[in-house]
Design goal:
alpha+beta; Butyryl-Coa Dehydrogenase, subunit A, domain 1; Butyryl-CoA Dehydrogenase, subunit A, domain 2; Butyryl-CoA Dehydrogenase, subunit A, domain 3; 3 domains; 4-stranded mixed sheet; globular; binds flavin-adenine dinucleotide
């Protein structure tokens, strides 16, 4: 058993850490306040290989492993939740189905520019009427000559307004889960209408939209993977995506923790820094321990993926634990800051809001508990 990162992983970590310190973290408060999309830092990530970090070199990615990809999202989360979610949705949700299931022609045409960071991607499962229950998806793609004609409405599509490519889970036949497929839709296809960005509690720089499709035509060869296997493919993609969301919460918790350490040395009450009060020390001790446990779970799940081992349970556990851990850590970080923790002038207020989504997206805590229980109990 080896708990050390490899030399290569450590170098990647250091490079990303420096990038985040210089380019991402300084803009986080501005991004949150103005709701501006963080194009400045996103554009700089392409040439560094970060927007295709764990995509094989053959498809213009950096060819790094999944542990490195988890570190990327963790470090970005440490700097700015909005930027981290944008990249997690692009890399973990939109590039992933193409890399895992796409044919060479789709990879050549779409995955390569996505991995180079020339265009962002979005994956759209959720609809106004359904999120957790993907079998209830109604957006339909019907064959007409040499094209799919898509009609329907999607909800909560992260990156919709900044993406060049949308991958939809759509109904391509009659019946249950066997009738769902992934269809790739170039974002400039006529008939797509993107609603204004949702007004959200946090993650203000990350753009999430309702999108409608009115007779949108794409070529028949734009099915990603196998027709009728969309649900199974989605579950595989979400296994990897959940490690990304877990890593994002880990980074947010780490940031809140670092702010808390700094503040507890600076703030004085009753003649001493609050770091001298046992009540504060115990909070810091619990935060350190919970973050450490989550990091082990996140890295192990990513490592299992690198070994080609099953990750469904490990990914669900890492996501469940890390996202709920970050909720507690951010709660205590605000408590340590007292009244200033409730002020938008201090980063912990933003970090707390940004983490809340992580317990909902890519499988709610309840759905992940169901996934874990079914694996443990062997029931369906
Ligand atoms: C900011 C943001 C970004 C998002 N980005 C994307 C994106 O890029 N692509 C995308 O496709 N989606 C995206 N989503 C949607 C997200 O994945 C869904 O919101 C999530 O999957 C939950 O679905 P829902 O909101 O429909 O809740 P529901 O499925 O309606 O669930 C409501 C509640 O019931 C619980 N519940 C549901 N079923 C069960 C059950 N069987 N047993 C016990 N409890 C249950 C849930 O846990 C939840 O508490 C995003 C959402 C947000 C808020």
């Amino acid at each position: 058993m080896d708990f050390q990162l490899s030399d290569e992983q450590r170098l990647t970590q250091q490079m990303i850490h420096d990038f985040v310190e210089n380019e991402v973290k300084p803009l986080a408060a501005h991004t949150d306040r103005t709701h501006e999309f963080p194009w400045n830092s996103i554009r700089k990530m392409g040439p560094l290989g970060l927007l295709g970090l764990n995509i094989p070199e053959e498809w213009a990615g950096a060819g790094a492993d999944h542990v490195s990809a988890a570190i990327l999202i963790e470090e970005l989360g440490r700097g700015c939740g909005s930027t981290a979610l944008t990249v997690a949705a692009h890399l973990g949700l939109a590039c992933a189905p193409l890399a895992l299931f796409g044919n060479d022609a789709l990879k050549e045409r779409y995955l390569k520019p996505m991995a180079r960071g020339e265009m962002l991607g979005a994956l759209s499962l959720t609809e106004p009427g359904t999120g957790s229950d993907l079998r209830a998806i109604r957006t339909a793609a019907r064959r007409e000559g040499d094209a799919w004609v898509i009609n329907g409405g999607k909800m909560w599509m992260t990156n919709a307004s900044v993406a060049g490519v949308m991958i939809l889970l759509a109904r391509t036949g009659e019946g249950g889960s066997g009738a769902l497929s992934h269809i790739l839709v170039p974002a400039d296809t006529p008939g797509i209408e993107i609603a204004p960005a949702e007004r959200k509690m946090g993650l203000h720089g990350c753009k999430t939209h309702a999108v409608s499709f009115d007779n949108v035509r794409v070529p028949l060869d734009h099915v990603v993977g196998e027709e009728g296997r969309g649900l199974q493919q989605t579950l595989t993609v979400l296994d990897g995506g959940r490690i990304g969301i877990a890593a994002l919460s880990l980074g947010l918790a780490q940031a809140a923790f670092e702010e808390s350490i700094k503040y507890s040395h600076e703030r004085q009450t009753f003649g001493v820094p609050i770091a001298q009060h046992q009540a504060i020390q115990f909070k810091i001790a619990d935060m350190a321990t919970q973050i450490h446990a989550a990091r082990l779970m996140v890295y192990q799940a990513a490592w299992l993926r690198d070994q080609g081992q099953p990750i469904t349970q490990a990914a669900a556990q890492a996501k469940l634990f890390a996202t709920e851990m970050a909720e507690k850590v951010c709660f205590e970080a605000i408590q340590i800051h007292g009244g200033y923790g409730y002020s938008a002038e201090f980063p912990v207020e933003r970090i707390y809001r940004d983490n809340r989504l992580m317990l909902i997206g890519e499988g709610t805590s309840e759905i992940n508990r169901m996934v874990i229980a079914r694996n443990v109990l062997g029931v369906r």
